[in-house]
Each structure stands twice: as structure tokens, then as C-alpha cells.
Amino acid sequence: MNLFFAITFWFATAVITLGLGYKVRQYWKTEAPLLIPTTPAPTTQGGVIMRMIREVTLFESLFKSNKWIWILGWMFHFSLLLVLARHVRYFQEQPWFWVTLVQPFGKYAAYTMILGLAGLLLRRIVVDRVRYISSPSDFLMLIMLLVIGFSGLIMQLFDRPDIIGIQNYFINLMGFKIVSLPINSALVVHLVLVALLLIIFPFSKLLHAPGVFFSPTRNQADNPREKRHQPSWVANMPSSNESAES
Amino acid sequence: MASVEYEVPELFKNIHTPALHPGVMEASGPFIAKPEHQEPLGFPGELVENWEQKAIEAMGEAVDNSRALRVFLDSCVKCGACTDKCHYYLGSSDPKNMPVARQDLFRSVYRKYHTPAGKFLSKLGLDWLIGGQEMNKSVLDDWYNYYHQCSECRRCSVYCPYGIDTAEITMAARDVMSKIGVGQKYSNEIIGKVYKIGNNLGLPEPALRDTLEGLEEDIEDETGVAVRLPLDEKGADILLVTPSADFFAEPHVDGLMGYAKVFHEAGVSWTISSKASEAANFGLFIGNHENMRKIALRIREAAIDLGVKRIIFGECGHAWRVAYSYLNTLAGPFDFLDPAYPVPQHICEFTHDLIQRGKLNLDPSENDWMTLTFHDSCNVARASRMGGIPGGQFSIPRDIIKAVCNNFVDMAPETTHEATFCCGGGGGLLTDDLIEVRVKGAMPRMTALKNVIEEDGVTHMAAICAICKSQFSKVLPVYGMGMDMIVSVHQLVSNALILTGQDAESEPESD
């Protein structure tokens, strides 16, 4: 088990790092052939940054769209953020100040995270329109996250593993050393699914996380008359740079 | 005709979200382009050999060249936020008209052939897990059918948490189809006319000149003032580029006479060009950048030939999108024009500025027999701007209407501004073979309009888009409302504008 989880997590970390790195580079390198901000849009780069911040912290567009999806989705994502922050301590001998600070919040965030996920899953089953557009993978993704949440909660409430031992194991893994991992069944489920999640991240719809920052309808400024947008496909066209006198 | 009998949606108090009825719009696609419509645009005349492979390749190329497509195809989480936002879904209840489902017709093929997960799972026969789909005839039929039931109005993109714009995917899918020989007759035939004659209607220069002279006579008969509508006048300050429907269709032509009167009062010299006698650019609708650029370059050439200093666009929604957002990219730089003015300008910006500066003598009581509301056209609302600040595209036309009309009421806020519903005929759908789609897609707007008619006594709806105007003339009667309820914004301006030297006795009669 010590070796199995070591290899699994080394592999999973490599996949998500390289995979996401590749995708981000690809999004970065792919040109936006035309300006397509959804208007009204900010006219300046500063305005675009504010729009993006509102979008990723408050889910502004989703709020305008559907209050149920918004509250469930926001609850899940914000809870997940707290839970992840709480987990930072597994990778630090001396946790940073904010990691210590966030511990109690992260503990309760587990409940709201599960609640949010359960609500989203319920919607996917009950609302005919959402059921229609769902693939098996959409259900599996939610179920996987729910099982990760529940297995974590079980460890927190009923079957506490040796936290210091787990911390020690992962700190050593980061230095490419394998020590003993104190396991129980909930931990095995938890870790296997987390590794799976990391591995499928760069190959699945989870790409919405980096994707949103590259979405042209949200990250372009509305200034086409002031500043000429000149992608290479136009710049390379023969007659586009002719001026009046030619 | 694609379908003879269809159900006209019932109008309720609120726009309600229907339950799913799979397949109800399955056989409602438009006529397919013939070889003579395809070839002038550089597309193969008919379905090419090995088209499945060609389609997959064209799709890959499209994604490689567009950040939007790449991000949009990867990012959708199927949250469902867009599912009740499309007017074609609301009006037809066909689930493939839900934006995400429409996207998925393309995305499922993309996933199978162009993503690592899809390629891997396909080998195991498990691509169904992630909604992978083989490219086959029934997929192509669905593409053709449902990508021509999207008006590229972008309402879904407003509500998507990642800003996914179905219009981009519709355009890409249409372009892929054109490239394998399955184009849409209506749009491609029209683009051919633009190349051959200069405008969508195929109106040649002598006929255009006649029409404009006729309009000059009409204005003089009505006002006693000689107002010119010049054609191809070298050295004019302003080139007016307007949709060709403005030359003869109702109520468009009343808008054109309005522009002429405004230019006259402003004392500027202006001209229409017979070379660029069309603002519309259907290259946008078919999603083909090369054709869109070729059409846009006519305007640059006309501006250079005529030696104008400014370019102003008439009332046309998608034309304004192409003009405002793309003209600089496609046909710029416009460094040969007067840098004191934005390139291009909208006729509403021009008129609004004159009103602000008190340069127009307006008598809004001329429009007292009407109570107006305003239909925000999708391409103006969500894909462009007017004036200096975000949202000018909403305030400027309304300011103009309020300056020339005493009675103005807005429709429900969830149907105006960036939340506006498409008229139902945009995006290359304004053709009789799609009448069922057009009527059903108009349901949300018709509902909102009916409410202000009943509650606020609205008698007319103004618009600044040639397609909206034509579409409403057609569908208003289907919903039991008068076809002449739809008016041009500059028609209202024209009614209220008192020309210098205008004979008070010859005021226009309200009919």
C-alpha cells in the first residue's frame, strides 16, 4: 500500500501538472480570430479584470441565470476551496498561519460541500432539461466528488486515522521518499478517488477551471474601434495592409 | 416549403419553459444550397466524397484556429443554466434547441475524434461514457437541421458561467458543412448576389438610382423641402452603408428617409455607394471568415473610391456587429478617414449627437398617435456598442425615441437590454423555408409585446435592424397583431423632424 499510493500520487501529480500545463499553454497559444466579448462589456483591461474576478468569485453570470444552480454551485465550489485549504496542512510540517486559521472552517465546509453536490446531483436527475443533456460522466463526476466528501467526513467523525502519520507520508512523498502510511478503509477510498480526480482533470470538463480565464466572451475588452485587433490570419492576408494611396 | 402545417405557440402571461418534446423540429431545416450557390463562395457544389473524414478534419482545423471554440468545447459542465434561455427552445420545446444540446451536436463529435479522452475511450468502445458520437449521416442531418434553428443571437452566452457562446459553435458547424458541400441556400445565394451585383437584393445601380430619386420626390412632396439621397458622389464627407432592405421594404424605407432628413438638417454631405450598397454581411451567418472579409472589403474600397472622411451604418443589427466589432480587423486600418470620428459610426450615434447638441428641430407630438416600445436587436445588444460607455447601445436608441415621441414604455426587463429575445429571424433564418422556426422562435418577444399592449396601451414597436423589421412584419399577424406595428427608429425621427424651411401646412398626416 505504501508503494501503491506513492506511485499513484506521483503519477497523478505528474498528469495534472503536465496536463494542465499543456492545456493552459494551448489556450494561451490559440488565437482569438475576432473580438467577441458579450456586451455590454468593459472597455478597458482593468474593467476586464474586474469582470473576471466577479465571474470566478461570485459566479455573476450564473447568478443572473438560475438561482438554484447558482446557490448549489457556489456553495460547492466555495466549500471545496475551504476544504482544500484545510488539506494544505498535510504537506507542511509547520502549517502556515492561514492554514491553521482555516482548519475549523474547512471542517464545516465538508457539510456544505456535500450538500451542494447532492443538490446538483438531484437537479441532474429531477429536472428534465438537465437530465437530457447529461452524459454518464456527468453523473459519475458528481458521485465521485460525493464519495470523496463522504469518506473524508467518515474519517473526521467515526474512523479517525493517524493524521500525523498521513502528514508525514505525504511530506516524504514530496521528497521522493516512501515511509509507512497509516491506512483505514475510508482513507483508501478517499485517496484512490482523489488520485483519479487529479488524473482525469486535464481530460474532462473540469477544464472549465482554467478555461473560464481564457473565455473570449469574458476576457476581451470592448474596444474594437479604438484599437485594431489584428490576429495573424488577417495580418497575413495580402490586401489588408494596403492603405488609401496604394 | 419545409412544412405546411405547424402549431403556433399559445401566448401566456409569462414566457413559460416547456417540457421536452424530442424531435418536434427534426424535419424543419432550410433548403440546401445548389452547386451554383456554393461555388462562387469557394465551397464544393455538393456533398464531397469521404465527407465524414473531411468534416472531422475541418472541425479540427476550426478548433485549432479559434480560442473560443477550444475553450467552449472543453469547458461546458452541463450545468443547465442555458437550457431555458433560447427562444427557439421556448417556442418549440425541442430539446435539441436548448443551447447546450445544440452545442453538444458538435461537441460530441469533437470529443470522440479530437480529445485524448475520446480517442482513448473510443478504442475501448466506451466513448458513450463521455457523450462521444461518431460522425455519420444522422449527425450531419441533425447539424444541418438544428444549426439552422439558431439565430446566433448570443442570449445563452450572457447566462453561461463560462461565457460559452453557442453562436460561435453554430458558425463553426455551418462552415464545416459548407466546406463539405452542404451549405444553406438562402445565405449562400445572397452572398453570391453581393459579389455579383453589390447587395443582397440583387438591385443593380440604375434601379437603385431610380429608387433614391423616387424617395427624394416623396420627401419633397411631403415637406416641400428638397432633400437629397445621393449615390456614388465623389468627395462626399460621409459614406452611408445601409441594409438594402432600406431601399424598398416597409417600414425600412421610412427609416432611410429619416436618415436623409437628418443628414440634410445636419448640413453634411453624404453618399450611398453602389459598390457597397449593402450593410449586411451574411459571411457572419455562415461562419466563414474569408467570405465575411471579402464582403467587408467592399466597404473599404467604396470609401477609398469615393474619398469620404467618415463611414456611417444604417439600422441593421448583424451589420452593425460586423461593422463595429470586425470592420477594423477585417478591412482596416482606416487611417485614411478623419480621425476625429470613430470608424464606423452608427446612424443612431450621429442622430443622438445632433439631438444632444440641440441641432434638430423636433416636434414629438407628431408621434402622439402612437405609444412606442423598443425591441433591442440581439447583435446590437450583445455583440456591439454605441457611444462611449458600455450600454450605450441601449440608452442611445431609447434617448432618440424619447426625444421624438412622448409615449414610450419598455417591455419586461427580462426581455430587454442584454436579456433581449431575438425576433426569431436572425442569423440567416429570414427565409420562407424556415417559417415554422421563425414563428415559434418569436414566441418570447410576442409574449412580452402582448403584455405591454394590454397593460400600457402600446401601439407600435420600434427596432433598428432590417431583419427584425422584416421578421416582425411577417410574424406579428400570425400572433394576431398588426404587421404595421413595427416601425424604424428613424421613421419616428422623420415624423418629428421639422426641416428648415418646411411648410407648416404640409405636415405629414397620421394615417
List keywords for this structure.
heterodimer, A: 246 residues, mainly alpha, 0% strand, B: Fumarate Reductase Iron-sulfur Protein, Chain B, domain 2, 2 domains, four-stranded parallel sheet, three-stranded parallel sheet, 21 helices, 7 strands
Task: Tell me what the structure shows.
The complex is a heterodimer of chains A (246) and B (511). Residues 240-246 of chain A have low confidence and may be disordered. Chain A is globular and about 65 Å long. Chain A starts with a helix and ends in an 11-residue tail after the last helix. Chain A has 246 residues and is mainly alpha-helical. Chain A has twelve helices and no strands. Chain B is mainly alpha-helical. Chain B has two domains: 35-190, Fumarate Reductase Iron-sulfur Protein, Chain B, domain 2; 197-409 and 458-506, no CATH class. Helix content of chain B is 46%, strand content 5%. Chain B contains 21 helices and seven strands. Chain B has helices spanning 35-38, 51-64, 67-75, 87-92, 99-114, 116-123, 137-146, 155-159, 166-179, 185-196, 205-223, 252-266, 289-306, 317-331, 347-356, 378-383, 392-404, 435-441, 443-456, 466-478, 489-496; strands at residues 238-241, 270-272, 310-313, 345-346, 372-374, 460-463, 486-488. In chain B, the strands form two sheets. Chain B has a four-stranded parallel sheet. In chain B, strand 6 (460-463), helix 20 (466-478) and strand 7 form a beta-alpha-beta unit. Chain B is globular, with a radius of gyration of 23 Å. Chain B starts with 34 loop residues before the first helix and ends in a 15-residue tail after the last helix. The mean pLDDT of chain B is 95. Chains A and B meet through helix 1, helix 3, helix 5, helix 6 and helix 7 of A and helix 3, helix 5, helix 8, helix 13 and helix 14 of B.
